[in-house]
Every structure is written in structure tokens, then in C-alpha cells.
Amino acid sequence: MRAAVVNSPESPPVCAEFPDPEHRPDRPPLRLVGAGLHHVVRGLASGRHYGSEHAYPLVPGVDAVARTEDGRLVYTGLARSPWGTMAELLVTPFEVELPAGADPLAVAAGMNPAMSGWMPLTARREEAGEPGTVLVLGATGVSGGLAVRAALSLGAKRVVAAGRDPEALEALRGLGAVTVPLAAAAPEAWAAALGAVVAEAQPALVLDFVWGPVAEAAFAALGRTGTEDDSAPVDYVQIGSLAGTEAALPAALLRSRRIRISGSGTGSVSKARVIAELPEIIARFGDGTFDAPYTVYPLSRVGEAWAHQGRARAVIVPD
């Protein structure tokens, strides 16, 4: 079959022949419709992601929209290594049918980033009920923007969206979010801006898609003085690290606040839990709550797709 093939961690994929995936009698092969080129896909292929198996050659891709033998469109993923989803044929352990009205390529582009915010939001809702005030750091990226939409759709009282892109922030403001620009200013200014919105309503949940100095600014904003009992707990969930892989955590913050800092990603959330949530997430692509901009690349141009940048997510489709 034709597939995107990564031959070494230093090289981009090329379109080449690759052995068909191992067939299973209970799982007929699916045919690719579109596979999103997510940050995690590049990280796994290059060996930079903690989940990489460092075995080459491999077919990249963690999820896709595909067509079944009887013509249904389904969302799927978790193909067995070295097979990924950027190939003409897929053999995968699950499939979730797309609802009527859902753009299959928007689903391919958006499901993986949508999951990253959805999972901690629903975990918080199960543990504590209504999510209260939610602060999203990195809200102008695809994942962060979808997390803002998810928080609003799940009933958050207040959603604060912090990010760099003014146009994207304006769109999120139109949905009902409070926005905090993080462009062009020093980290101290970010801390002051975040502190002003935190002072109005302490977040019950922080979703951090960027880490690095933005996280440090958020820690400063969340800090407090005095010895009065803290009013309410804060869950701080680290999801992405586009701004940096390290962040200094003040000891005083841990001692002065009822704060819990954790991560959400492959390994910390079970595959079974993720799969159970997929129908709810996909339904929001069907009803228009979620959307994801995308740029289409055929398999033959996968090298160009690998270098793609910008707001739209690259989606690989068959030639």
C-alpha cells in the first residue's frame, strides 16, 4: 500500500510503498479519508515525544477518519506500530461513526486537539460537578481554542482565554470568553494581566497548553499572601509545552494554595476512558459547537505537509 514513511528521526516522511497492516479477522481494513498532522504526530515520529518507540521505518499518524467496507465514515486510531494512520489502509482497534453533518476532514483535523482539553474538563466535572471558572493558557492554538469551546459547552461559569493571536482572541470573546492577550509583553506583564482576571474569580481549573514562561506567569498570578484559609481548590493541568519544556514552580504557591498540579496526555489517561468519550466529542463537530480549520495535502505531498505551519492543521488524504 502507499503510505507516508518515516525512515529516520531526522528525516521528514516520504510517500512510498509499505507493507499492508496485519489483518485481523474481526477488524476488516479501513480506507483512509483523512489523517491529521498533530504536534504529537511529529513528536512521535522524530523521537522527541515520550511515547516514541524509536523504531524505524514507521508510518506516522495517531488517528484518522476512514471509510468502512460498507461505506460508513468512522473516526479511528491507535493502529499497531509500525503502522500509523497516514496510509491507504488502516487496521485499528476501534471505530466511532461520524454524525450526519460533520465535516470528515474537520474531524480528522480537530479530534485529537479537542480531546486534550475535553478529558480534564470531564474529569473535573465528574469529581466536583460544574467546572466553575476555567483558565485556558494557549487559547489561540487549535487545542486551546477547542478547550475554550468545550468549557463553555460543558457549563463553565466563566472561561478565561489567554493567548497570543489577537484575531483568535476576538473570536473567542465573541463566544463569551474573557480574553487576556499574551503577545509582545514581558512575562511580568503577563503575570499582571492574568492576576487581574484571577482576582475577579479564582479559576477552579487551569488548562495549560504552553508551559514554559507562560506557566511561570500563571503561577505568579495564582500566588497569594497572608495565612487565611484558601477558599477553594485549584486544579492545574499541564497538557502541552509549546512555550517551553521547563517551568519553575514556586514553593510558596504549593504551600499557600489548595492547588493540585497534574498532567493529561498519553499514559495518564487510559485508552478506554478516551474511547468512551469520543462519541460526545464527535457529536459537537456534528452540531457545529466544534470546528477545526485544515489544509489538505495528498499522500504524495506529505513532505510539504510536514513543514506546514499556521492556524490550519494539515490533513493527509489519499491521492
UniProtKB/TrEMBL annotation:
Region (Disordered): 1-26
Domain of life per record: Bacteria
InterPro entries the record matches: GroES-like_sf, NAD(P)-bd_dom_sf, Zn-ADH-like_protein
GO terms assigned for molecular function: oxidoreductase activity
The name this protein goes by in its record: NADPH:quinone reductase-like Zn-dependent oxidoreductase
